[in-house]
């Protein structure tokens, strides 16, 4: 008798939580928080909106995308990561698909409670999540398109949604929109880092992630450039907008990333996870500094 299951054939709660991948929730939650900051609206009296939106961005919409991806990637994961909940059998039958569908519905219900604009943003994010993983589009088969969709959802869309939610559905000011777009572009490189662990399976299954199609060395250089150039543009814009302190903070974080990039580029396959763990946090700290600059410009 398995006490961790509700009944035979039902996945254990721990396996469901693993399927939803809490470790991946941080980027969109952080980006939503940056949008909240950039809105310029005081948190007093708006805590409920902010906290519900952060819940929506991470444990709901992002978690849905992870369940969708694992279901449609089950053959690839059987090669790359056979210990994952679906290929290992810990989430049996079609439970993976059922969880993805149910979490989509819950996400839309919570988004609707936050207003029309948040609902539409969540609908777009969920549509991209399904388009990324599911046929016929399966955007992840092409590393350029797939990573662009992920970058948009994880950073730009979450940022704009956070700002719009705090502004009562109004369109955020231009500086906030521009910064969100630039950090979305840079997030394309972050998504590339995640693909280094699955090169063998991607090649076998015809998924043209950048590491699989360009090779590890070229893909690593592309990822670094794609992350660095938008941040350089952010620095230039912040200086032009009269925010030298925030520009200096972003520049310092970028300098730290460049130093780490040199180490990563020497052995990209072995060090992609290392760079994700230590370089990407500097990227997102720069986002927050930029959000405070946008707040001052409102």
UniProtKB/TrEMBL annotation:
The record gives the membrane topology as: Multi-pass membrane protein
Major enzyme class: transferase
What EC identifiers does the entry list? 2.5.1.62
Alphabetic keyword roster: Cell membrane, Chlorophyll biosynthesis, Membrane, Transferase, Transmembrane, Transmembrane helix
Question: Its Gene Ontology molecular function terms?
Answer: chlorophyll synthetase activity
Give TM segment ranges.
Answer: 108-132, 144-171, 177-196, 222-241, 247-265, 272-294
NAD found in the keyword field: no
- What does the UniProt entry say about where the protein is found? Membrane
Check the record and name the InterPro entries matching this protein: Chl_synth, Prenyltransferase_related, UbiA_prenyltransferase, UbiA_sf
Pfam families xrefs:
UbiA (PF01040)
Q: What is this protein called?
A: Chlorophyll synthase ChlG
């Amino acid at each position: 008798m398995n006490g961790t299951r509700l009944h035979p054939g039902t996945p254990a709660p721990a396996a469901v939580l693993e399927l939803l991948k809490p470790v991946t929730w941080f980027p969109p939650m952080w980006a939503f928080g940056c949008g909240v900051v950039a809105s310029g609206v005081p948190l007093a009296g708006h805590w409920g909106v902010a906290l519900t939106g952060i819940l929506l961005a991470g444990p709901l919409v992002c978690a849905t995308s992870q369940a969708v991806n694992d279901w449609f990637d089950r053959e690839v994961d059987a090669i790359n990561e056979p210990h994952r909940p679906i290929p290992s059998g810990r989430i049996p039958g079609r439970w993976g698909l059922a969880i993805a569908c149910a979490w989509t519905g819950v996400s839309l219900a919570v988004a609707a409670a936050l207003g029309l604009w948040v609902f539409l943003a969540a609908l777009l994010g969920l549509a991209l999540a399904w388009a990324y993983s599911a046929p016929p589009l399966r955007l992840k088969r092409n590393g350029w398109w797939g990573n662009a969709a992920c970058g948009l959802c994880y950073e730009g869309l979450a940022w704009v949604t956070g700002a719009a939610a705090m502004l009562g559905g109004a369109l955020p000011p231009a500086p906030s929109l521009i910064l969100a777009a630039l950090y979305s572009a840079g997030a394309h490189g972050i998504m590339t880092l995640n693909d280094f662990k699955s090169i063998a399976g991607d090649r076998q299954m015809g998924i043209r992630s950048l590491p699989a199609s360009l090779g590890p060395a070229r893909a690593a250089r592309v990822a670094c450039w794609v992350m660095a150039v938008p941040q350089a543009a952010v620095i230039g814009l912040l200086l032009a907008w009269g925010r030298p302190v925030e520009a200096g903070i972003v520049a310092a974080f970028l300098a730290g990333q460049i130093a780490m990039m040199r180490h990563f580029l020497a052995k990209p396959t072995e060090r992609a996870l290392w760079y994700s763990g230590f370089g990407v946090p500097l990227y997102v700290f720069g986002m927050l500094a930029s959000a405070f600059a946008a707040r001052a410009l409102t």
